[in-house]
Amino acid sequence: MASSLSADAKDALARTPVTADHCRAALRDGLAIYGVDARHGAFRTQRAAIARLAWSLLDDRKEHPIRKVGGTRLRRVPTYEFDATPHDGRRKPGARCDRRMELRGAFLACGSLASPARGYHLEFVTPDDAAADRLVALLRAEGLDPKASRRKGRRLIYFKDVDAITAFLAAIGASHAVFALEDVRALKETKNRIHRLVNTEAANVDRAMSAAASQREAIALVVDARGLSSLSRPLREAAELRLSFPTETLAELGRRANPPVGKSTVANRLAALTRLARSIEA
Questions:
Q1: How many domains does the chain have?
Q2: Are 223 and 116 members of one domain?
Q3: What are the tens digits of pLDDT across the range 142-201?
Q4: Are residues 208 and 129 in the same domain?
Q5: In this structure, are 224 and 152 located in the same domain?
Q6: Residue 11's domain is classified under what CATH number?
Q7: How far is it, in rounded angstroms, from Cα 255 to Cα 237?
Q8: Same structural domain, 258 and 124
Q9: Is the residue at 143 inside a domain?
Q10: Domain extent for 91
Q11: Of the residues 188, 213, 228, which one is the last residue of a structural domain?
């Protein structure tokens, strides 16, 4: 089966040892509640590591060997299954660690994590409505607020908020997936900052070019009406500089002045020329 962030996270969790008996029981309950197909009386998964984990938690595992079922022509991924009895759902996790172990079992059995390059999305396709209600209650006990919908008649519990997704993955011990998501988020935020800076700079250039064009039009009007010789030396110099260097910034024009002046001084002189042009038009 092709590797992905979801598959890698599941394989890593399936191989993570759980030593406490009550945690192992909670993990076994989670795998049974969310992974056993009640119609066929079997636990099914497409990850060999998950099948081995679920099988290892059985008390009578020698009587329920794992079977490998080949894929179809359309979907060539094999399925691993073994006979299992559906969980009655009466036993509830008491301790926080047990709740998180059941959530780990839910993710292993019916959860999937989308590639963050295509967007943030974590979902659970639960086997029935009772399992969906139980999962929602467990998630809310962790301070998470999932969304719900239906797909082909089955309840779908999902998250699209990256903070909620990372909080869930951290709670069930999927540290590798958390680091991967944080790396992608940092990269995306860096790219977004760069794009914002580029867009801001482009907007500033557009504004500067538009202002320079307006200044040249005003200077041309003044020259046609009165001539440069009618202007004071500072205004005449500002007009000549703007006409000679139409794309330069105010700071660059100020450095060309004799003597050099600041950006605000150049701006004031060009503003005076603009006001003079408006008075001529009036």
A1: 2
A2: no
A3: 999 999 999 888 899 999 999 999 999 999 999 989 998 888 888 888 888 898 988 888
A4: no
A5: no
A6: 3.10.28.10
A7: 12
A8: no
A9: yes
A10: 5-188
A11: 188
Query: Quick check: 167 and 146 in contact, CB under 8 A?
Result: no
What amino acid occupies position 62?
A: K
Give all strands of the β-sheet with 147-151 in edge-to-edge order: 111-113, 122-125, 154-159, 147-151
pLDDT higher than threshold 50 for residue 1? no
Distance CA 23, CA 53 (A): 13
Q: Do 103 and 210 sit in the same domain of this protein?
A: no
3-state SS track over 126-185: CCCHHHHHHHHHHHHHCCCCCEEEEECCEEEEEECCHHHHHHHHHHCCCHHHHHHHHHHH
- Whether 29 maps to a domain, the answer reads yes
Q: How confident is the model at residue 277 (pLDDT cuts 50, 70, 90)?
A: confident
Q: For residue range 30-80, what is the model confidence (pLDDT) as tens digits?
A: 999 998 887 778 898 989 999 999 999 987 777 778 888 876 655 677 888
Structure tokens at 181: 């998501």
> Which residues have a Cβ under 8 Å from the Cβ of 271 and sit 6 or more positions away?
none
Residues 235/273, Cβ–Cβ less than 8 Å? yes
Residues 86 and 163 in one domain: yes
How far, in Å, are 232, 252, 265, 275, 279 from residue 219 at the CA level? 13, 18, 17, 10, 12
Residues in the chain: 282
- Cβ pair 107, 170 in contact under 8 A: no
Largest Cα separation within the chain, whole Å, is 107
